[in-house]
Amino acid sequence: MVRACYTGEINTFALSSLVLYLQVLVFLLCLAALGYYGFSLYATIAFFRSQPNELTEIFTPPVTILKPLCGLDWESYDCLASFCQQDYPEYQLIFTLQDPQDPSLAIVEKLQQDFPALNIEFVISDHHLGINPKINNLANGFNLARYDLFVISDSDIQVKNDYLKAIIQPFKEAEVGVVTCLYNSVTEGWLAGFEALDIATQFLPKVMTARQLEGMNFALGSTIAIRRETLDKIGGLVEIVNHLADDYQLGYLANAQGYQVILSRYIVEHHLGNVTLENMISRQARWQKCIRVERFWGYVGLIFTQGTVLSSLFLALTQASVWGWIVFGILWLARYLTAYWIAITLFQDPTAKQFWLWTPLRDCLTFGIWCYSFIGDRVTWRGKTYQLLSNGQLSQL
């Protein structure tokens, strides 16, 4: 009887010690998250102060815009037409498709009719360099490219007529190899807005933080402007055709070759139509797994960005103590304020303005997908399933 009581006391002591250790660990993580919120705000302010708002000396070399198409996006015509309305002296538009029955072909033909003075071409080819369907599609357009400065942009991006002028200016400097852009989201339906809230309040601060700490060594699919010389030096599209994160790789490889990657102050619009919960989670998991294999320790470090969840866990571990409520309140207030200042005040994201109060709930889903994405190596992309290898490349299943 005495031994049983003694054993029970030991077990109780061990459990209490474990809870205490967890409280200390989670508290330290909460402090790190608070520091991250503050630094991400500082990094965003530094970004907006780093470049002039007005163009002083205009640099306008001829440009080839390449648009890979596959199916229709929400407001496809408006997005694509915005690239036909550029206030720019000389540029060419090339649309690339793999299927002659693709519904986006009708939009391309309408654009040719609506903008007869503009050099608009398209190519339909199912030629494959490798596994990545977007890069296979994109590669088929380069034979038609007339100019040595390329702008590659996803089909769901809409821009204003000063877009080309703005993003091309850094190429005045010979050491600049790539220019890329961040984006705000315009959405259709509440679930699409809920998904895009992550872009405004999680993705944008992470990019700002990475830029401030490491400089730009990656690019984003919303816009990748790249010199032909730079693309040739990194080995062309064949070097990235089996990678899932093709946009990341273009910036990374260019930077590895000694070129600068510039994050433009120009913000484009990303159009996201109605989504289902299933394809939203599938898309988010694909992106998260991609980050995990490309930069594993950076992916692990994302725990420091999860102050909403960490403070809730600390509150539970302290059994809703006064100290637990204080930490919870500070973290949630900091999260709301930094999300507001970054996404709404600085980036002026329309989706964030509408869904800002949902930020903690969106954080919880992001945390769940982050945890889930540590497991497994399969991703789904446009209805096909691939195996994601440890080097970030895809394998066909």
Describe the structure.
With 397 residues, the protein is α/β, with parallel strands linked by helices. The protein contains 14 helices and eleven strands. The strands form two sheets. The chain has an eight-stranded mixed beta sheet with strand order 3-2-1-4-7-6-8-5, sandwiched between helices. A three-stranded antiparallel beta sheet has the order 9-10-11. Helix 1 (2-49) packs across helix 6, helix 6 (190-214) packs across helix 12 (322-346) and helix 9 (277-294) packs across helix 14 (359-372). It is globular.
Distance between the termini: 61 Å
Q: What is the averaged pLDDT score?
A: 91
Taking pLDDT < 50 over at least 5 consecutive residues as the criterion, the unreliable ranges are none
The whole-angstrom Rg is 24 Å
Q: Helix count?
A: 14
| Order of strands, widest sheet | 3-2-1-4-7-6-8-5
What's the assembly state of these chains?
single chain
